[in-house]
Amino acid sequence: MMNLIQLVTTCQSLRRRKGGVLSLAKIHRHELQCMPDGPCLSTFMEWHAMGSKFAALAGGGSAYILILIAGLGLRVSIGSLPGDTPWALANILRAPTEARHRDLIEEFIAPTIARMKAALLITVDSHHLRQMYPCQSLSDSDNFYDSFDFNSFKLSARDTSVWCPVMTHSPPSAVPLHQPTREEIANSIAPPDADHLLPDSPHPFYDPPASQREEHENVSWAVSQRGIVPTGMQAVVAQLSEPLI
What we know:
Elements: H1 2-17, H2 24-32, H3 41-61, H4 63-71, H5 75-79, H6 85-94, H7 99-119, E1 122-124, E2 133-134, H8 138-146, H9 164-167, E3 175-177, H10 182-186, H11 215-226, H12 233-238
Parallel strand pairs: 1-3
Antiparallel strand pairs: 1-2
Helix pairs in contact: 1-3, 3-4, 3-6, 3-8
């Protein structure tokens, strides 16, 4: 699932570098058609659609919600959800309006994610950001996913009262959660770097929080932080054959 999200962020970075006019079909033609075993256009677009759905849900419940989905065996079911259902679920996770949804999050989902966070601290491949972003901070996670371009859909502001167990920072020593490259696998003495931020230290590239930024500022933040998109779009696609999550 994280590999599919990485595909989405790579495409968005390419689009923004071209002023937002680069279609998925053009990205496929320019970046992937030259690959001997590259995906066809329909497969590429299916991967992008699935990655967008997983990104929406991660925007609702952080990367830990993806671990929960994988553990429950719901990856295929979530990936095949129709229409805007994943984005509706994301907003329910962020700011439930119905009592039954609020109770479900307060009594089960948020405590479960809090326990997962306490047992397994992770960082996630920052997808062309200058550093990996720490999943142990829900506000940092929201900053990251608020920068995504979901067309006309926008994630709601988070109701922090529902997510109290998850809102506090956790100690450092996070485990990187990303697809290892061939170089990392070949060189066992050079493991991926992980963030080591103190709980009370603000993350260097998350300022101000998303709740204090307008939509256009979110886009500007994403553009400034993603930096130069690597030309190796093929490397991103190659990792999708065996996704970790």
